[in-house]
Each structure stands twice: as C-alpha cells, then as structure tokens.
Write a structure and sequence with these properties.
Number of domains: 2
Pfam families: Glyco_transf_4, Glycos_transf_1
Radius of gyration: 21 Å
Helix content: 40-55%
CATH class of the largest domain: Alpha Beta
Keywords: Glycosyltransferase, Transferase
Distance between the termini: 25 Å
CATH superfamily of the largest domain: Glycogen Phosphorylase B
Low-confidence stretches: none
Mean pLDDT: 92
Strand order of the largest sheet: 3-4-2-1-7-8-9-10
GO molecular function: glycosyltransferase activity
Structural class: alpha/beta
Order of helices and strands: EHEEEEEHEHEHHEHEEHEHEHEHEEHHH
CATH topology of the largest domain: Rossmann fold
Number of helices: 13
Protein name: Glycosyltransferase
Strand content: 15-25%
Largest sheet: 8 strands, mixed
Domain Glycosyl transferase family: 198-357
C-alpha cells in the first residue's frame, strides 16, 4: 500500500516528560520508520514558532507561552494556535489527522480538519485529575470542573471518525464521562527488547517514574517506605519532577529517609533505562493512569510491580503473578507488599519474568499496525464517527 502523509497533533511532546508526550514521539517515529510522511504539530518548548526535522519526523512548533502556575509547562493561546494549525494543515495537505488531546493544539487541528473535511482520528490521554494540579482548582469545584472538561472533550472528539484510548478501562471512562460510545482500545505499545538486560543494584531499590504532582501520590510511597523493617536494606529512587517535589522532599526528611531516597529529577533516555534495569521493584501509586507507560516500561525490564488498584493499572498488574495491587491510601498494605518483594530475590525474578510476558502483549509493532489500519479505514470519511469503528 502507498505511504500516507499523517499529521499528529500533540499538546505535549518531547522535551516534555510525560506518558502522552512519549507516546506521541514513539508513534510518530514508528510510523515514519514504516515509510509514512509524518508531521507533528506541538507547542514550542522555547516560545518561538518554527519547523525542524527530528530524525525521520517533521516537527512544527506553535508559538507558546510559559504557564505561570507551573514552571515546566507551556501553553498555546487559542487565538494564535487556531489560525496557525489551520494554516499548517493546508500547507502539509495530509491524508489523515491524528490528535492526541482536545486542548489548544489538538482542538485547533480537529476544528480545521473538520472544516476542511479531512479524515480525523483522536486518542485520549486525559483525565481531569491530571489537570487539577496545574489549574489549581479548589477541591469544592473539582466535580463541576471535571464534568465541564468531559463535555468539552466530547465536543472536540465528536468531530473524529474514530476515537481511541489506551485500555478498555480508558474506553469505558470515555463512554461514562464524555458520552463517547464506540471508542476503541489501542495500547500505547512498547518496544520491550529495548528495556531487557541489566543487573539489580547491590542494595535493593524501589523505583518510581513520573511527574511529581498530587495525583501520583508519591507521599504514600514515602510513608510506606518509612514503614519497612529496620533490618531490611533498601533504597528509593524517584525519577521525575513536578510541583510537589519540594514538599515531598521535605516529607522524606521528616520521615528520616533523606539518606535513603535519591531524587533524580528529569533524566536522559539512557539514564532512565539504567534506572529500570537496576531497580528491584517498581511502584506506581498514581490514581489517574489511563495505561501508565512507566509501569509498562518497568515490566518490559523484567521488574515486579506494586501499584494502586485504580483506573487502568489492573490491566497491567496480575496480583500474585507479576506483583500486587493495593487500595489507594492503604499505606500499610503498600509497605507490606514492598517488604515482601525486597526480602525475596527469587520471588522478584519469578514475578519479573511474568511482567515481561505480560508486557509482550503490548508490542509497539502491533500498535503501529492498528493505527495504520484505522488511518486507511477513515480515508475518504470526512465528518463525525463511523459505525465501523464501534
């Protein structure tokens, strides 16, 4: 089949460090590697609009501004991004548009694609909980804000011929919260072989990877780690940064953990691989994970996982097989599960092997196959959802 010209709209993209950004980059690079002409439209990391090549992908940067409530976050203004995305769409003339969010860049491309009657696919990585820390919405208003956010998403994604989300649970959430029936589960995918190998550190290490924002609940991990038996040697490594880093570092000091916790901040891809390979256990206490690429990466590295029994994490963690789930907020249960794994190297090896087997079902190649199939299926379809996608 002939190659396609594809525009991917991403409101977050590397150098941003988060699951949605990493997925968009992997999707773009994977599709380009299959011979497609791939263009990514994303906010500029330095504010200036421009275009450049990143390996095999053409990246178009939209003028952006620093978000005053979060030092590592940039936003595009609708009255600037709307015309810019429409002009880019006309200039690139794609066969299909694939937006990764309903925010400013994704919205601009979705509206422009709809008006120009171009085929549109949309993928959701959004949960309101991911937004609350950035927007600093008071707790009393969060339910109202969440309902508004889901309705807003439905207005934008309702223009798409096909809507996807990373897991069946994420698809159900779209139906229940946004009223978008017929969305399809398509895993973000993983190149599992990239994470294989490595040797555990001499002192067993618990690893967390992710943004240090409230919905990740790293404070629960710190409190659980403080409850480990005194005679159990262990370290905690935290990769990532965010608004809560200072408060959580202070909490670690209050708990007497300062010498046992390593705050790595943002790291390079090679350093991240090293962290996965040397850890003994991976922990994901977050409650707003539509798939959790970090968990999938740790599993690909052959690590057992202890994770919150929330959202899509049960799709990855099989209790007693490759790790355990615990009720969010149950610090005692989290501590007990971590202690069991840290004290038993044979159990870690057995569960780590199971993690790799489970992760293999999320092969990136299969994800690329599925999106190619969806793109070709919407060619010639120019407005609204298609029944065949249901």
């Amino acid at each position: 089949m002939p190659p396609l010209r594809i525009v991917i709209g991403a409101d977050t993209y590397p150098p941003d460090v988060n699951g949605a950004a990493r997925f968009a980059a992997r999707l773009a690079d994977g599709l380009a590697g299959r011979g497609h002409d791939v263009h990514v439209v994303a906010p500029s990391p330095d504010g200036r609009a421009g275009r450049h090549r990143e390996d095999r992908v053409t990246v178009h940067r939209i003028r952006s501004h620093r978000y005053p409530l979060h030092e590592n976050f940039r936003i595009c203004l609708p009255w600037q991004a709307g015309p810019a995305t429409a002009a880019l769409l006309d200039a690139v003339d794609p066969d299909v548009v694939h937006v990764q969010a309903h925010f400013v860049v994704g919205r601009g491309l979705a509206v422009a694609a709809s008006r120009a009657r171009r085929p549109l696919v949309a993928t959701n990585h959004f949960m309101p909980e991911n937004l609350f820390a950035h927007a600093r919405i008071p707790g009393s208003l969060r339910q109202v804000a969440a309902r508004w956010a889901w309705r807003d998403l439905a207005r934008v994604f309702g223009r798409a011929a096909v809507v996807t989300a990373p897991t069946p649970r994420a698809v159900q959430l779209l139906a229940d919260s946004a009223g978008l029936a017929g969305a399809l589960p398509v895993s973000c995918g993983i190149d599992a072989d990239r994470y294989a190998g490595g040797v555990e550190a001499d002192v067993p290490t618990v690893l967390f990877v992710g943004r240090l924002d409230q919905e990740k609940r790293v404070d629960e991990l710190l409190r659980a780690f403080a409850r480990l038996p005194a005679d159990l040697p262990a370290r905690l490594e935290i990769v990532g940064d965010g608004a809560r880093r200072g408060a959580w570092a202070a909490l670690a000091g209050e708990l007497g953990l300062s010498g046992r916790v390593c705050w790595r901040g943002f790291v390079s891809e090679d350093e991240l691989l090293g962290a996965y390979r040397r850890c003994a256990v991976f922990c994901m206490p977050g409650i707003a994970e539509l798939q959790s690429l970090a968990t999938l990466e740790a599993m690909s590295a052959g690590k057992p996982v202890v994770a919150a029994d929330a959202m899509a994490l049960p799709h990855l963690v099989r209790p007693g097989r490759n790790g355990w789930l615990y009720d969010p907020g149950d610090v005692g249960s989290l501590a007990a599960r971590l202690a069991t794994l840290l004290a038993d190297a044979a159990l870690r090896r057995r569960m780590g092997t199971a993690s790799r087997q489970i992760a293999s079902r999320h092969a990136l190649g299969a994800t690329l196959d599925r999106f190619e199939e969806l793109y070709r299926g919407v060619l010639g379809h120019t407005t609204g959802p298609i029944a065949a996608a249901a």
